[in-house]
Backbone:
């Protein structure tokens, strides 16, 4: 039997959706640092609570995150009135300086080039702001491989459904590469196969699959190198099992 590689799994697909942070770009650490910067005038204990929430809910829109931070911090006085606007502005200031410098995840350039040669349509589906993602992908040189970049405020589920409809693609002929609980939830809702890119993820396999349907299975790779073997796991299966070509 021959092991199934990431390249094998994607060959012949019509549509491939990529999350951005932690999947295409090694930028999850930048986002965590941006949260720390945005909340710098609060205590380390409060910042750590917020970063833990951010880690577990990574991939959701920033307004969602900062509304949760507001509940966790419970600011009073002038801070309470301007909390969201001030903190989101600081968060975005940090990203303007650091986000586009994030390196590509290993294998990203090679995999995207192979998919382009095979006429596979690629798109980014992210919880980040579209203009930030487009700029970062342009700097990294991979923007030319993407037909669309869809970010906040459009939900990932809505973005996937819109692209499936636009390209007349059945969900089984698409695939979503993500690294967060929000990515897996969108894939399951849209009935699109999912591969967990785990190398830079802020959550582990067990957290990712904790609320999955019992019979749902996903693939896993550490990064985007096309020759990576794809392992399978599910909510019931704590051990990873490699895929094989029969």
Residues:
């Amino acid at each position: 039997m021959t092991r199934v590689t990431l390249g094998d799994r994607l060959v012949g697909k019509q549509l491939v959706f990529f999350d951005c942070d932690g999947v295409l770009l090694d930028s999850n650490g930048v986002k965590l640092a941006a949260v720390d910067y945005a909340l710098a005038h609060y205590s380390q204990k409060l910042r750590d609570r917020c970063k833990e929430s951010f880690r577990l809910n990574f991939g959701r829109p920033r307004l969602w995150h900062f509304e949760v931070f507001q509940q966790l911090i419970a600011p009073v006085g002038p801070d309470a009135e301007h909390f969201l606007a001030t903190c989101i502005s600081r968060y975005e200031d940090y990203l303007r300086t650091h986000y586009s410098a994030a390196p590509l995840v290993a294998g990203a350039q090679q995999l995207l080039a192979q998919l382009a040669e095979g006429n596979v349509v690629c798109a980014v589906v992210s919880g980040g702001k579209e203009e930030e993602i487009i700029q970062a992908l342009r700097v990294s040189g991979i923007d030319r491989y993407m037909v669309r970049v869809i970010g906040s405020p459009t939900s990932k589920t809505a973005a996937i459904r819109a692209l499936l409809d636009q390209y007349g693609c059945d969900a089984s002929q698409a695939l979503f590469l993500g690294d967060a609980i929000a990515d897996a939830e969108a894939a399951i809702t849209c009935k699109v196969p999912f591969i967990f890119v785990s190398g830079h993820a802020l959550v582990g396999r067990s957290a990712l699959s904790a609320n999955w349907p019992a019979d749902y299975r996903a693939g896993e790779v550490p990064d985007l190198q096309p020759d990576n073997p794809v392992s399978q796991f599910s909510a019931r299966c704590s051990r990873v099992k490699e895929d094989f070509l029969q």
Q: What stands out?
A: The longest helix spans residues 78-98. The mean pLDDT is 92.
